[in-house]
Amino acid sequence: MASVNTQFSIAVHVLAAIAHHEGVFTSEVLAGTVNANPVFVKRILVKLSKAKLVKSTVGKSGGYGLAKSPNSISLLDIYSAVDAPDAFAIHTYPKRSECIISCNIKEVMGEVLASTQEAVRRDLVQTSLSDVVSKIRARSN
Asked: Do residues 93 and 83 make contact, with C-beta atoms less than 8 angstroms apart?
């Protein structure tokens, strides 16, 4: 079975937690909300910080808070920040010249992949972090 990259969903999770509670939290606390390894969550927070989606403060009451309003952070911003992988990968096996499929599949699937990725980006840009938090709150009632 292929490995799965969960960085995007974890990034949305921690940002939604920060936005919902409107506070500043340590990476350990945020890792606890995900039930994930704090070092892994810290790596994601560093990426979010580099993308200027979170700001970090040091000291006794330090931690991570949102750098922007949840309304102004799109899921595409988060997706881009964590370098989420493409929807699928195209195999790298060599072509067999006697096989019409083998000679053309990579190019055709490359077009499908480009179209799929564009559709994902179009959808993600339309959803804000605030939308995610609102949906979470609506489900908890």
From this structure: no
- 40: how many CB neighbours lie within 10 A of its CB? 15
- Buried b / exposed e over 7-32, threshold 16 CB at 10 Å, is bbebbbbbbbbbbbeeebbbbebbbe
Please report where in the chains the tokens 């980006």 appear, as a residue: 121
User: In terms of pTM, does the model score above 0.90?
Assistant: no
CA distances from 85 to 58, 68, 88 (A): 31, 25, 8
88-110 pLDDT, tens digit each: 889 989 999 999 999 999 999 99
The set of residues, in sequence order, having a beta carbon less than 8 Å from that of 84 and lying 6+ positions away, is: 5, 7, 8
Pairwise CA distance, residues 99 & 43, whole Å: 44
- The span from the first CA to the last CA of the chain, in angstroms, equals 37
What 3-state class would DSSP assign to 103?
Answer: helix
- Which amino acid belongs to residue 31? A
Outline where 22-60 has alpha helix (H): 27-34, 38-50
| 50's tokens | 């580099």
